[in-house]
Amino acid sequence: MCATVYLSTMYASYAQVMQSSNYSINFDSINSGGVISSSTNYGTEDTLGELSTGDSSSTNYSISAGYQQNDTYFIAISVAPNLTLSSISGIGANQASGTASWNVSTNDPVGYSLYIRSTSSPSLKATTTNSSFADYVPTGASPDYAFTVGAASSTFGFSPEGNDIVSRYKDNGSACNTGSGNNTNTCYDGLSTTDRLISSVVAANYPIGATTTVRFVAGVGSSKIQDAANYQATVIVTAIAP
User: By C-alpha distance, which of 111, 15, 112 is closest to 64?
Assistant: First the structure.
């Protein structure tokens, strides 16, 4: 059998006045004059004759109209390709895993938050039958340090890795949600249709950004007979300003 994880990426965007594949203009000005002036001690840009300036808002928007009033911040996230896990047998203990990475960059001093969720429950389902892998359930309130599968079970889980992962996925070398470690292939959790926070930082990180790698694992227990089929999961990763 083969499992494919379809990865969708979303982000909170800031409006642009004009944009193309090569540029974006975040704000502009329609006026009757204005110049750019500078000396060894200062630089200034001014405008003349603007209309409809000032602050206004409603339940759906807020706007600061007027020349360069707005402090413009942005957030960007890379797009990860779909992930195909290696084929696994439906008889006897087997596991298949793969990773996908997202880089988030922002110039906003409040930083960013990165969330993950599935579009269905259970997340990993057969395309032509009713068979599925259960979403991983840790043994306690915190993620499991190691990915485990019951003998009569099949399950699908994930583990995030990166410098900005939240404390839930950090470890002390033997347990998760404690310590400051970020060991590879540890701290497994299950997906749900509700957003789960996996990475966050309160700081601007443009232009380098920060990368979070998510390891997905599908496992079949030693006495579980899993239907032979193609299995698919659709996962949405969203980056927003906190």
Answer: 15
Q: What are phi and psi of 183, to 5 degrees?
A: -70, 145
Question: How many other C-beta atoms lie within 10 A of the C-beta of residue 116?
Answer: 22
Q: How far apart are CA 93 and CA 225, in angstroms?
A: 10
* pTM of this structure: 0.77
Q: Maximum distance among all alpha carbons in the chain?
A: 79
Dist CA 237 CA 112 (whole Å): 13
169 backbone dihedrals φ, ψ, rounded to 5°: -105, 10
Rounded-to-integer distance, Cα 95 and Cα 148, Å: 10
Mean pLDDT by 10 residues, the chain (242 residues): 77 55 61 71 70 71 63 85 82 87 94 96 94 97 97 96 98 97 96 97 94 96 90 95 81
Contact between 198 and 240 under an 8 Å Cβ cutoff? The reply is no
Q: Which residues contact 228 (CB under 8 A, 6 or more apart)?
A: 1, 90
Residue 98 confidence (pLDDT): 95
Residue 16, helix vs strand vs coil:
coil
Q: How far apart are CA 237 and CA 22, in angstroms?
A: 25
User: What was the pLDDT predicted at 15?
Assistant: 47
